[in-house]
Amino acid sequence: MDKIIEVRHLRKVFGNNEVLKDINFSVSKGEVVCIIGASGSGKSTLLRCLNLLEYPTSGEILFHGVNILEQKMSNAVYRTKLGMVFQQFNLFNNLSVLDNCMVGQIKVLKKDKESARKTAMKYLELVGMVQYINAKPDQISGGQKQRVAIARALSMEPEALLFDEPTSALDPELVGEVLKVMKDLARSGMTMLVVTHEMGFAREVANRVVFMDAGVIVEENVPEVIFNNPANERTREFLRRILDQ
Amino acid sequence: MQSKESWRGAFCSLAVVLVAWWLISWIIRLPIVPSPVDVFINIGQDFFTKMENHVLYSLGRIFGGIGLSIIIGVPLGYLMGTYERVNRLLSPLVYFTYPVPKLALLPVVMLLFGLGEASKLIMIVLIVVFQIIVSSRDAVVNIPPEIFRSLQSMGASRIQMLTEIILPATLPEVLTATRLALGTAVSILFFTETFGTEFGMGYFIMDAWLRVDYLDMYGGIVVLSLMGFLLFTLIDVAEKRLSPWR
Ligand SMILES: Nc1ncnc2c1ncn2[C@@H]1O[C@H](COP(=O)(O)OP(=O)(O)OP(=O)(O)O)[C@@H](O)[C@H]1O
Ligand SMILES: [Mg+2]
């Protein structure tokens, strides 16, 4: 299978806090991989390292087999290949919904306005936000913001999307609409790496679930095994705690 | 000026001032308080023959001083807002000099830089620049770091972070700071123009005073006030234009 991203012996140290310790894993084309784990286990840091928002302390990140830490490809070009969706949406509040989805295409990909608009509209349609293109982010709900953020990431036409707890900042009644968009995306064959606490989503959509604890990948497997018959005691303990809530 | 209402407020207070002025002049009937009507007629007659040049000089100094302050203050503020180390180095300096009444520094500035244009510009800069430094620094600090991440994650360069995020987020604050500093800047300008120059509204007003030409003196004061008001409004309008999200 075509591995889009592969991580080898990745380490990230903040001061004397080793947040990621020898991480190895990969995401193949069309796969949906969910990362679960307790707060502080290093999930966000891993995602940020993948996108070079944090620079790894050591290890390799291979993009289609090429180690991007050796600067064979410019960081900026590489970043455009991976879209990112954040917990706090991080929309540009001074721009309309449509402009949010166009600014990256125009400024970074140097597309002309018309084709940027077309692409943006295509993905805003996909997430069901076409009626709101002229709204400002503070005029729409959290769930709508996150859908716009997804459309914004898709508008860059990346090869894979990274989600960092995309529903954790949402009111419970708004989680569903975002998860539905993500499920549709997964079904359409989008490659996705999703940090989430939504075990239902992971169980239903993921091809693979990765359980992280204290900076290491403790266990990874298909969701049936992780959720029904995990190999590791720490995985079992974590799931018991989270499913109890 | 947010709306018609604030414009109406401005006109009302202007009317009150003019009526009061007219009443006083009518009661006193002395040349030291000429009637506003005479003063405005005098302005109409004198503006393009006598005052124009002085107005241009004063405007030039104000724009020069504000421009220099922005050129110096904004990058410094950005550096302080972005790099904690620069902030730690410079903020004591800023805070120690902030409350010093800048007018008290005038003799020092004139000793060091002479009586010419340099001193006049430097005095304005001294007044405006600190507010600009502090407000642009705070504006940068107040941008949520995630906003940078989201643009960065799309592959934007550092320059693009500056033009797409930092500039739009800080420019309105910088303009507000400028607007707030403007009043003091105009007073200082007036003061410095009474030394070592024969151009500028400060000179014009003091010269008229010495010549006992009260019509010109009052005319100069009115024109200087109008200049201040015009600049204030100009910046205000620019602020509104630049900050559609507020
Ligand atoms: N920029 C940073 N500087 C220093 N320490 C950091 C930084 N970012 C993260 N950490 C530390 O790294 C550890 C892992 O953080 P991370 O945000 O990756 O965890 P997480 O698994 O995403 O947790 P959560 O579920 O709460 O989001 C934490 O102990 C955190 O304090
Ligand atoms: Mg996290």
Describe this structure in words.
The complex is a heterodimer of chains A (245) and B (246). Chain A has 245 residues and is of the alpha/beta class. In chain A, 39% of the residues lie in helices and 26% in strands. Chain A contains nine helices and ten strands. Chain A has helices at residues 43-50, 75-81, 97-107, 113-126, 142-155, 172-187, 199-205, 223-228, 233-244, and strands at 3-14, 17-28, 32-37, 58-63, 66-67, 82-85, 160-164, 191-195, 208-213, 216-221. In chain A, the strands form two sheets. A six-stranded mixed beta sheet of chain A has the order 6-7-8-3-9-10, sandwiched between helices. A four-stranded antiparallel beta sheet of chain A has the order 2-1-4-5, covered by helices on one side. In chain A, α3 crosses α4 and α5 (142-155) runs parallel beside α6 (172-187). The relative contact order of chain A is 0.17. The model of chain A has no long low-confidence stretch (mean pLDDT 93). Chain B folds into two domains: 1-33; 37-242, MetI-like fold (Orthogonal Bundle), CATH 1.10.3720. The two termini of chain B are 14 Å apart. The mean pLDDT of chain B is 88. Chain A binds chain B through residues 48, 51, 53, 75-80, 82-84, 86, 88, 90-94, 103-104, 107-109, 136, 138, 149, 153, 156, and chain B through 144, 146-147, 149-157, 160, 164-165, 168-169, 244-245. Residues 43-44, 164-165 of chain A line the site of magnesium ion.
